[in-house]
Amino acid sequence: MKFDFKNDWKEHVRHELLSLGFKYNDNKNVTENSINFFNVNRRLPKKAPRKAVFSKEFCCPIENKNGLNALVKKIEKGECLTPNLSKTISKADYNDATLDDWGIHHFHLGNKEINGVIERTKNVAFVLVLFDCALFIQILAHGKGHSDVWVNTSLVEIIHTNWPESISHMKTDLSGTSLTSTERTTLRKKNANVDIEVSDGTVYFAPGGGRMSNGASMSDFMNLQRIYRDLDYLEAVVNQESDQIKQKITASNGTLDLRVDFSNTQKLRVIEVNSKTMLDLQK
């Protein structure tokens, strides 16, 4: 009986990175490549039709109306949104601090696409992208003279006011911390996680999951640790139940070849590839 579930994960990461337009870096270990995979997968909204919903505070400058309308059409049709993202999307190991910290994407609102990239705009749309909808928070200026936009707590305030259920899982009973935008920027550059207190006194801890001390996303790290835990468990069960597995499955060539099915990473399953037999070994 053959199986190497850790290698199955490595090859899955390699395949998925390629499908997203990136390469598996053989100079890095599987953990580093896995974190890059989770990072890219989170930064690139999956192509799926979503309902565009606008906050009560949302306001679009006249010069961005056409770009916004085009973006909304893409979202509602489930088209690729990559052209509207930051050019840093081409770097698998780049960490979008506002996304990691607050779970908020930002999209450029240009009218033309040049070499696969929408023309850059001073004003960008801040959006909370969920499974079936895109919550348009606000359009704000970024770039020179607007560096504090990435720590503008009004973005979280607007989410709290309009769609509190979307971030309710990150509520905390801790006391809020009063910080200036400069202090928040400094702390974020140091990969420190800080809470956000909104006007009614509700306090949230990093709606996007927060950041590790090395700058990586905490949610990406936790997801990877869960995968490693499940792989260890599956290997232990296969070793323990190997005799029973051999009795129940007959391979045409006499050797069972077990692989992990990663189609649902929330519930990993094992397949005997020759007989195409699915083994449900999870708790």
Keywords:
283 residues, 4-stranded mixed sheet, alpha+beta, 8 helices
Task: Produce the secondary structure layout.
Elements: E1 2-3, H1 5-19, H2 30-43, E2 51-54, H3 65-77, H4 97-102, E3 105-108, E4 113-114, E5 117-118, E6 123-129, E7 133-141, H5 154-162, E8 171-172, H6 181-189, E9 195-197, E10 203-205, H7 218-240, H8 242-248, E11 257-261, E12 269-272, E13 277-279
Parallel strand pairs: 1-11, 2-7
Antiparallel strand pairs: 3-6, 4-5, 6-7, 8-10, 9-10, 11-12, 12-13
Helix pairs in contact: 1-2, 2-7
Overview of this protein structure:
By secondary structure, the protein is of the alpha+beta class. The chain is 34% helix and 18% strand. The strands form 4 sheets. Strands 1-11-12-13 form a 4-stranded mixed sheet. The chain has a 4-stranded mixed sheet with strand order 2-7-6-3, sandwiched between helices. The chain has a 3-stranded antiparallel sheet with strand order 8-10-9, with no helix packed on it. The longest helix has 23 residues, at 218-240. The radius of gyration is 22 Å and the shape is elongated.
Q: How would you summarize this macromolecular structure in one to three sentences?
A:
This protein is of the alpha+beta class and 283 residues long. It has helices at 5-19, 30-43, 65-77, 97-102, 154-162, 181-189, 218-240, 242-248; strands at residues 2-3, 51-54, 105-108, 113-114, 117-118, 123-129, 133-141, 171-172, 195-197, 203-205, 257-261, 269-272, 277-279.
